[in-house]
Amino acid sequence: MNNELLTISNHEPGECVIRAEGLSKKYRLGVITRKMLVDQIESYVSRKLGKTDPNSRIHEQNTDTLPEPYDFWALKNICFEVHRGDIVGIMGRNGSGKSTLLKLLSRITAPTEGKAYLKGRVASLLEVGTGFHQELTGRENVYLNGSILGLKKKEIDDRYDQIVSFAEIEKFMDTPVKRYSSGMRVRLAFSVAAHLDPEILILDEVLAVGDAAFQEKCLEKIEATKNSGVTILFVSHAAESVKQLCNRAIVLQQGRVVCDAPALEAADFYTEGLHLHGATHFSGGTGSRRSEMVGAISSFLARSLPSGHVLVDVPIETGDGVRIADVAWISEARRSTLCRLPAYSGAPEICVHLVKNNLCEKEQIRINGKLFKMGAKENWICSPDGRIDIRKFHSKASLIIRDMPSQLNID
């Protein structure tokens, strides 16, 4: 496993600064399933002896036998080059390997196969709070990050006022970062990454945590770097942002590159594959009944509620694990308050569930209850023929879509 980082101070315009050669990442799943090592050992011994696992969850089956581990390839044979000054968008549905790719390029994790070469000083903003020491203050973390990037104290001093002004959290710079909200952490993290003059800036979907005004401010900052020679990798589900900011985009699907083209062409490829014509994040193959149902419901929501966002295959964190909504609609106001990595920290206002043959009515009611607790206003149960059963959080509440038909035309 080789992942080499080459630091070269002088770059020629247009030279290759990022190169991936057969980059692949494999995870072994089903081996470690507990948070604490002592719990993992206790579970292993109990199952090995044929006894019930004392740490098993209520919904788990076969808790007296060892789970069967299996391999999962998050990325497979990724090859591309990025030249100095390029702004490259990385697109793909949830689980396609975008974040894994950025972690490999940031040297947070090592590849299973292949190599990644980077030339220059790299700043990464992958998750909320990444790179911050929770016990240190905001001021101390600014200097810590600058030192990691190889800057001298005087260089950080010269940029400090700009960093604080951009983040707009002047009153809290001497407060420990552990007391910051997720939005405050993102503000400071982006400001530090953008103002410490990195030669390569790697951004994941963390900007979704900030409010709309700050997101716009960040996008303007990225726009301003176009002529500065900074190379940016920018992960986003927003096709319009990719078209506006990037000169090129890469689309991932199931851990593989399916499109590497100019930004306009790649973004259109992405949205056409979603069958939403740019409205939202859609997934699912063509030719299947599920694809037709998801496409019809998503298009209906996009037409009926154009001010929000339509999502597909949405992971939602609940009290007993992550639940998946087949389709969802979320308002811009609610979306700006939720953390989206690795799963949504709250439920969208509308969660749509396609009827599954192996899911009993009692289990569906239990899932609905969990999503209602996480903020959902309506749960839609959609049958294969297009009939929709709407269950509201409050029985007397008005429907979000007032002229809601009882059945959608799927064909």
Task: Give a verbal description of the structure.
The chain has 411 residues and is α/β, with parallel strands linked by helices. Among the domains are: 121-271, P-loop containing nucleotide triphosphate hydrolases (Rossmann fold, 3-Layer(aba) Sandwich); 275-392, tt1808, chain A. The protein has helices at 37-48, 98-105, 138-148, 153-167, 182-195, 212-224, 239-245, 263-274, 289-304, 332-335, 361-373; strands at 4-6, 16-29, 70-83, 87-91, 113-119, 122-125, 200-203, 231-235, 248-253, 256-262, 309-318, 321-330, 350-354, 378-382, 388-392. It has a six-stranded mixed sheet, with helices on both faces. Strand 13, helix 11 and strand 14 (378-382) form a beta-alpha-beta unit. Helix 3 packs across helix 4 (153-167) and helix 7 (239-245) runs antiparallel to helix 8 (263-274). The longest helix is centred in the last third of the chain and has 16 residues, at 289-304. It is globular and about 65 Å long.
At the first level of CATH, what is the class of one domain?
Answer: Alpha Beta
The backbone outline, from C-alpha atoms, is: globular
CATH superfamily of one domain: P-loop containing nucleotide triphosphate hydrolases
CATH structural architecture of one domain:
3-Layer(aba) Sandwich
Strand content: 25-35%
**N-to-C terminal Cα separation, in Å?**
49 Å
- CATH domain topology of one domain: Rossmann fold
What string, H for helix and E for strand, traces the elements in order?
EEHEEHEEHHHEHEHEEHHEEHEHEE
β-strand number: 15
Largest sheet: 6 strands, mixed
Q: What is the rounded Rg?
A: 23 Å
* Low-pLDDT windows of residues: 1-13, 275-287
Spatial strand sequence of the major β-sheet = 6-7-8-4-9-10
Class inferred from helices and paired strands: alpha/beta
- Total DSSP helices: 11
The whole-number mean of residue pLDDT values reads 79
Helix content, binned percent: 25-40%
